[in-house]
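Tokens for chain A. Residues wanted.
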């Protein structure tokens, strides 16, 4: 693939299969207001992690309830509760069959599914996802959000550049005999793009410095710059790291913009 073609390829493409599903949203530096104000102002590490990737929302408001053995569920607009093993999204199966080729009819993805293990549920977002070649998707709970006490998310990495299917997450229910609510206006998972080399064989390429005797001049100088000098400066301002990093990021963005403009000029 040429460099020009790479520049035109989106890092991620989301496919809305359930028409009512809310589109993904770029993750927020404040974690939707979840992180403390002081951290939002001064902790660049936390805000960068919070804004990495995209928020994914439930396609409908629904509730789960677990008695320690079986799961029941209900959704917005109905009053009844239903036993859960595998459930389609309301009215989605005929919609899927109307659009699908003949050999794919009847294969609409389930909205909710339980596992053999007690309290484990798979939840589909109503979306599918494809990433650019060489990129995968880390699917996890929203970063730095206050956790819902009713469930925990299992994280997973999916090779979405080659595997095309429903974007879902597996959760472990942690509270019994009490409704666990999923709000369609509140993200229930976060998708973060990862280059394949970040978790593949290249991840084996690391080293360990066993003790301080392994520190060289470069390490001590960097430690001095990062830790000692700021703490000895009586005029040091909070958030120096954040200010420095933002300047670096703006410079990178300018370079990226100029490179893209140059590529377009060469193509034109």
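Reply:
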């Amino acid at each position: 693939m040429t460099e020009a073609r790479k520049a035109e390829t989106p890092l991620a493409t989301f496919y809305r299969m359930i028409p009512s599903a809310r589109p993904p949203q770029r993750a927020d530096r404040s974690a939707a207001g979840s992180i403390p104000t002081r951290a939002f102002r001064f902790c660049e590490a936390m805000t960068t992690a919070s804004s990495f990737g995209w928020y994914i929302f439930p396609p409908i408001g629904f509730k789960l309830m677990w008695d320690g053995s079986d799961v029941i569920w209900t959704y917005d607009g109905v009053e009844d509760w239903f036993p859960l093993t595998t459930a389609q999204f309301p009215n989605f199966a005929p919609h899927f069959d109307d659009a699908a080729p003949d050999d794919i009819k009847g294969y609409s993805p389930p909205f909710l599914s339980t596992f053999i293990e007690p309290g484990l549920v798979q939840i589909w977002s109503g979306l599918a996802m494809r990433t650019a070649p060489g990129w995968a998707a880390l699917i996890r709970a929203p970063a730095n959000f206050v956790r819902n006490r009713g469930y925990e998310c299992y994280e997973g990495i999916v090779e979405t550049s080659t595997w095309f299917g429903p974007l879902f997450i597996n959760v472990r229910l942690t509270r019994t005999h009490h409704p666990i609510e999923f709000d369609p206006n509140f993200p229930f998972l976060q998708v973060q793009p990862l280059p394949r080399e970040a978790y593949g064989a290249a991840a084996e390429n690391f080293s360990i410095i066993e003790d301080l005797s392994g520190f060289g001049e470069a390490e001590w100088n960097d430690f001095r710059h990062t830790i000692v000098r700021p703490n000895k400066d009586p005029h040091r301002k909070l958030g120096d790291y954040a200010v420095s990093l933002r300047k670096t990021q703006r410079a990178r963005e300018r370079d990226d913009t100029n490179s893209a403009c140059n590529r377009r000029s060469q193509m034109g």
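The mean pLDDT is 88. The first strand starts at residue 12 and ends at 16.
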